[in-house]
Specification:
mainly alpha, 31 helices, 5% strand, E_motif, PPR_At4g14850-like_plant, repeat, transit peptide
Length: 597
């Protein structure tokens, strides 16, 4: 016989509990509600109300709520799937997402454990989100196997979550395989792979995937269209590559689908245009945004753009003009301190640092140490390192070594080099800087000792490479490159460059080349640095007057900086170089960094 319908009184009581559930605010409220569930019999029955209570409890912002939810789950003699899912969801969103995986494995249940609830697609979805947050590739593979065994591989949302977990764990081949094997995909599926490729190691593939989608999305997504998440992922890939032409194309596509004014898209456009060397376009996007639409991310991206392009005073001004309802965070302070550093605004940088409303981290200290060190205030920089509330890391001592080299302070350079050795640093730049400090003081025996240490430690130089974009195609060059199909033309162009800039007073700056080769060999080594090859290729591949944009993986060297300035004057070109630290805009023989870099 079918169960009897609930009495009117029981239905009214359940309705009252439902109403109360929506109003729970404090932990004591949850505990009182728990008591009512026990009294009403809903706790021991497989009541949807019990599962909803567990779900609310597990996601509550109160620190003790999630442990209380787990305690409640463990007290149930026969937890249902919905009960388990509520706890899985709360743990996956918590500061310790790995506990969600432990719960799924039954290791957070009491011993002897009650009957295990059956897993469903939601259980696996929450567990996969936890695996993604933990970057647990092994767990993702195991959950994939469970998913196949349960026969839920046709669930598009679940497969998208699986793809996303693979991508966030860095397993892009598996993410692509899941995507390729899905018979049905929605826009979230495309977005998950796009974001994974763009934020991982395959931005080129992300752009190829975007162009595939943008070119035929009505066929690929018959019931929906690309959205702001699609655009943001594609712009992220453009920013990483410095691919301005692709970025302009993505911007046009955003206009086409009506996403151009979306705040997240605007923020991504500011970041993309800045990283592609077009500060003017980045500022256009920012100033076109309504004041009330700008978010903290909007200000952070714009301050960072101004800072990396050498406009430190403008970055500081925008920081000071931020609306009072937007509270700066650690990213804001790092961006504005970086602007002060690049522009040599020492007192202003100290003011910002001393007025920080968030605890400064290693990067904030490092930027101020760099700021002081470049300005020659080495004692202040060293004192700041000594007063930090945590020990200095490798990057901070490398910063100190660079400042010591800049100002020829042998004692401080030796101290920094010793600290770097103690921390296990073994990169070529450390040795080159120390060697050059010794060489500047004609201490050749010490130069030889540094070279011997490099050989005995098998120190390898990080290869320099540069990119330039011509007609939407990225061209890569390494130092001394002869792999490019037009390398002979490029080398002839370099010979012409040297001839023309020599008339303007150019002399090779060989001080940064290791002192174990002759002067002529040093000049040859400098002549074919990757950024020089990229600039030469730009000159022979673009019409007169067109801006040449170059991206370099290392800091630009002193000689290449001089050469770029002189080329901009001799050939009447604007040259924009994005190196590891900042942008340099060369025009009419001057650089935006004002030779302070």
């Amino acid at each position: 016989m079918p169960p009897a319908p609930p009495s009117t009184a029981a239905a009214a009581a359940a309705q009252q509990l439902e109403s109360l559930l929506r109003r729970l605010a404090t932990l004591s409220h949850y505990k009182e509600f728990h008591a009512r569930l026990i009294a009403s019999g809903h706790l021991l029955s497989h009541s949807p109300l019990r599962a909803r209570f567990l779900d609310r409890l597990a996601l509550s912002p109160h620190e003790a709520a999630l442990p209380y939810a787990l305690l409640l789950l463990r007290s149930l003699p026969a937890p249902a799937t919905n009960d388990l899912n509520a706890a899985l969801r709360g743990l996956a969103a918590s500061p310790q997402p790995a506990r969600s995986l432990l719960l799924l494995a039954g290791r957070l249940l009491p011993a002897p454990a009650p009957p295990r609830p059956r897993l469903d697609a939601l259980s696996l979805s929450f567990a996969l989100k936890a695996a993604a947050r933990c970057s647990d590739a092994v767990a993702t593979v195991q959950l994939h196997a469970i998913l196949v065994r349960l026969g839920v591989a046709a669930d598009v949302r679940l497969m998208t979550t699986l793809l996303d977990s693979y991508a966030k764990c860095g397993d892009l081949p598996s993410a692509r395989k899941v995507f390729d094997e899905m018979p049905v995909r929605d826009v979230a599926t495309w977005n998950a792979l796009l974001a994974g490729l763009a934020q991982g190691t395959e931005p080129n593939l992300a752009l190829a995937l975007f162009h595939r989608l943008a070119g035929s999305f009505p066929e690929l997504l018959p019931r929906e269209e690309p959205n702001d998440v699609t655009i943001v992922a594609a712009l992220s890939a453009c920013a990483q590559l410095g691919a301005l032409q692709d970025g302009l194309g993505v911007h046009e596509f955003a206009r086409k689908i009506g996403a151009e004014d979306n705040v997240r898209v605007c923020n991504a456009l500011i970041d993309m245009y800045s990283k592609c060397g077009s500060l003017s376009r980045a500022l256009e996007v920012f100033h076109a945004m309504k004041l009330e639409d700008r978010t903290l991310v909007s200000y952070n991206a714009t301050i960072q753009a101004l800072s990396t392009h050498g406009h430190g005073a403008d970055a500081l001004r925008l920081f000071d003009e931020m609306p009072t309802w937007i509270e700066p965070d650690e990213v804001t302070y790092l961006a504005v301190l970086g602007g002060c550093n690049h522009a040599g605004l020492v007192d202003e940088g100290r003011r910002v640092f001393d007025s920080m409303r968030v605890p400064p981290n290693m990067k904030h200290y490092g930027t101020v140490v760099d700021l002081l060190g470049r300005a020659g205030r080495l004692d202040e920089a060293h004192d700041m390192i000594m007063r930090m509330p945590f020990p200095a890391d490798i990057v901070l001592w490398q910063t100190m070594l660079g400042a010591a080299k800049m100002h020829g302070n042998v004692e401080l350079a030796e101290l920094a080099a010793t600290k770097l050795a103690e921390l296990g640093s073994n990169v070529d730049g450390d040795y080159v800087l120390l060697s050059n400090v010794y060489a500047s003081k004609a201490r050749w025996a010490d130069v030889g000792r540094v070279r011997d240490t490099m050989r005995s430690n098998d120190v390898r130089k990080v290869p320099g490479f540069s990119y330039t974009e011509i007609d939407g195609v990225m061209h890569k060059f390494i130092n001394g490159d002869k792999e490019h199909p037009r390398w002979r033309e490029i080398y002839r162009a370099l010979d012409d460059i040297v001839s023309r800039i020599s008339e303007l007073g150019y002399e090779p700056e060989t001080s940064n080349v290791l002192h174990d080769i002759g002067e002529e060999e040093k000049q040859y080594a400098l002549s074919y640095h990757s950024e020089k090859l990229a600039i030469a290729f730009g000159l022979i591949s673009t019409p007169p007057g067109e801006t040449i944009r170059v991206i370099k993986n290392l800091r630009i060297c002193g000689d290449c900086h001089v050469v770029a300035k002189l080329i901009s004057k001799a050939y009447g070109r604007v040259i924009i170089i994005r190196d590891r630290a900042r942008f340099h805009r060369f025009e009419d023989g001057q650089c935006s960094c004002r030779d302070y870099w």
